[in-house]
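User: Just a sanity check before I run the rest of the batch. Below are the structure tokens for the first item. I only need the designed sequence back.
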């Protein structure tokens, strides 16, 4: 029988009376296994595939070597799947799937063997829409869902990358005197390539999550007015959830329209994809947004305000004979205020910036519908005439009762 493990672990292990309960666990994947009445408590697993392998003969034989496991013995697995309680029952050839939180009760008994009934359940799941419902449940209840509901999810990182390039990363471009009076002479740099590195850690629920992001960007200035810019970005992220990996890849484009010397509008479009087989999840997402930036130039410092309105939604896709769409859609507000002050470091003029950013989600229910960031950075000015720019910084995050940090470095040339 050929059954994708990354798909089946999401659905085969769900069932029984614990499926609708939330479970606090140190690891995103663990289980209490009972084999023919013999309990094995708190068995840890490094990924969703490993949790699925808990149902295999080899895994159960390793747990129950004496007396050796008999593949016809009844097995009950009550596990923790990214914060959601789950159970799966098998007795003889029959397979039982019971998910109270989704209103689903199904028995598969037509096959002569247990494997045949598992295959029948898999065929049913491909066409039932259960995967979409499950994704919505996990985004609502799991602090580590890779699609939405936390700062390291696909939806959050896509919106944050847009806001970063539209407002945060280019704040000095708006406030700098060279930009305000730029004339398009040959001294002005019209294109800029950016590369960065970000590393962060955060406790989400009871789970430690780390992320590594490489934000790639490219900007093209208008030769008559450098404040007009086409902004392109491709952030790449790896998220580690206690050893389970999620990979985010995004693409975005924005255009900066100066409405006045101090006010700019930046419309944008974005696409992102996550592959998280370790977490039993995959999704693609699209978003469109509009960011307004405004600054006040004061003697000795600048103050800027960025306000983003964005709409992000998952997109349907087909793979391996099934159609999949989590149907997660949210209107996102991301608002920030930044303060910038010139300073001297070893005799070189640089800019110290601090900002406070608030992000809120409205629409599909999420584990966390808001989070906040306090950021500090130091670097050179990003004026139109600068040949290169670098910045380094620290971002402190707060989500519900959880906290974390991001270390950030960026270089543009």
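Assistant: Here's the designed sequence for the first item:
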């Amino acid at each position: 029988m050929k059954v994708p493990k990354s798909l089946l672990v999401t659905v085969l292990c769900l069932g029984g009376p614990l499926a609708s309960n939330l479970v606090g666990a140190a690891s995103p994947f663990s289980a209490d296994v009972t084999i023919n009445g013999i309990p094995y408590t708190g068995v840890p697993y490094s990924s969703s595939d490993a949790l699925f392998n808990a149902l295999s003969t080899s895994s159960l034989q390793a747990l129950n070597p004496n007396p050796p496991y008999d593949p016809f013995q009844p097995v009950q697995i009550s596990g923790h799947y990214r914060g959601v309680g789950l159970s799966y029952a098998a007795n003889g050839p029959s397979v039982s799937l019971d998910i109270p939180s989704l209103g689903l009760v199904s028995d598969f008994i037509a096959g002569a063997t247990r494997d045949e009934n598992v295959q029948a359940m898999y065929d049913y799941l491909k066409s039932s829409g259960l995967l979409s419902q499950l994704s919505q449940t996990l985004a609502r209840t799991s602090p580590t869902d890779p699609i939405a509901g936390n700062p390291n999810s696909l939806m959050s990182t896509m919106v944050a990358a847009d806001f970063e390039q539209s407002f945060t990363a280019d704040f000095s471009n708006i406030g700098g005197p060279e930009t305000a009076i730029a004339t398009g002479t040959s001294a002005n740099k019209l294109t800029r390539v950016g590369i960065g590195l970000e590393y962060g850690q955060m406790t989400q629920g009871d789970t430690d999550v780390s992320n590594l992001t490489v934000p790639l960007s490219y900007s093209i200035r208008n030769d008559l007015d450098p404040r007009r810019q086409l902004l392109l970005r491709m952030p790449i992220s790896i998220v580690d959830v206690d050893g389970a990996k999620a990979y985010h890849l995004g693409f975005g484009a924005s255009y900066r329209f100066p409405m006045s010397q101090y006010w700019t509008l930046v419309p944008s479009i974005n696409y992102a994809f996550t592959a998280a087989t370790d977490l039993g999840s995959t999704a693609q997402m699209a978003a469109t947004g509009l960011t307004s930036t405004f600054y006040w130039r004061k003697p000795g410092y600048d103050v800027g305000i960025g306000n983003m309105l964005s709409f992000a939604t998952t997109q349907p896709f087909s793979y391996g004979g099934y159609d999949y769409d989590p149907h997660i859609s949210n209107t996102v507000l991301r608002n920030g205020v930044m303060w910038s002050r010139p300073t001297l470091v070893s005799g070189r003029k640089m800019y110290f910036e601090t900002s406070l950013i608030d992000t809120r989600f409205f629409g599909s229910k999420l584990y966390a519908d808001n989070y906040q960031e306090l950021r500090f950075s130091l670097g050179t000015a990003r004026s139109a005439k600068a040949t290169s720019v670098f910045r380094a910084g620290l971002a402190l995050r707060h989500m519900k009762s959880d906290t974390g940090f991001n270390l950030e470095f960026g270089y543009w040339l």
